[in-house]
Amino acid sequence: MSAATQHGQTPYYFIPAPSHFPVLTATGLFFVILGAGQWVNGHGWGAWVTLFGFLMWAFILQGWFRAAINESESGLYGSRIDVSFRWSMSWFIFSEVMFFGAFFGALYWTRLHSLPNLGSLENALLWPDFKAVWPSAAAGATGSPAGIVEPFTTMGPWPLPTINTLLLLTSGVTLTIAHHALVAGNRGKTILWMWITVLLGATFLCVQAYEYMHAYRDLNLKLSSGAYGSTFFMLTGFHGFHVLVGMLMLLFITLRLMKGHFTPQRHFGFEGAAWYWHFVDVVWLGLYIVVYWA
Question: In sequence order, which residues have a C-beta less than 8 Å from that of residue 137 and are 6 or more positions away?
Fold first, then answer.
């Protein structure tokens, strides 16, 4: 399982044995991509292949995570591993910053560069009916003078986005309270505030699902609603997915706390999930200002 160590002694650096988990996880993702590609191209069987891939991927990951948890609780992870975990989580969050930065950059470039350029005198002969306004919510004021973009209403900040902002900001506070309680050795208080945090995250997702229903049903706002619709749903949709991932991380950390895992001195699993959740909070604040208010 690892390099040989004396009984009861934490190894200087843990080296795991060769594992079948990476190749099986990659196989599950292969079926996800294969099925999704066929599904969007009109092949009904692609949906079942996608479902199979997701189930396989999730089953393999739970086994992989269970093995890592067992290694941690067995005392195989020393200070060197803790440092490597911190660097790994830091780089992972940095990659997520770049991910969202690309979509924020697309929104910025569309509004401040592409749209004015398309509405300039140089393009007047090519697009005589184009109006360089944002958001392009009405027919004739879109990047589609041919009228293939249906009129829609933009999503304002009140009330649903503001409610979600309060939910996420509150969840950041409750998570911080739970962290301080864990450091103080108060496991019961930690578990209580963690459950509150998970509940706030789940409520956020429910409110966002209702917001999407409202957008489609009442505002005719869709992914196909020009540049506004595509950037709106790409930014808020990917953020919602990250909220789901973060909420699941916090849920499993809470279940581990209930099993007696983590100590006031060693609890980076908790801290890593908390880092990720606070990152999700910060991204939402940017979305709330740029997408709903600007």
Answer: 151, 152, 153, 154, 228
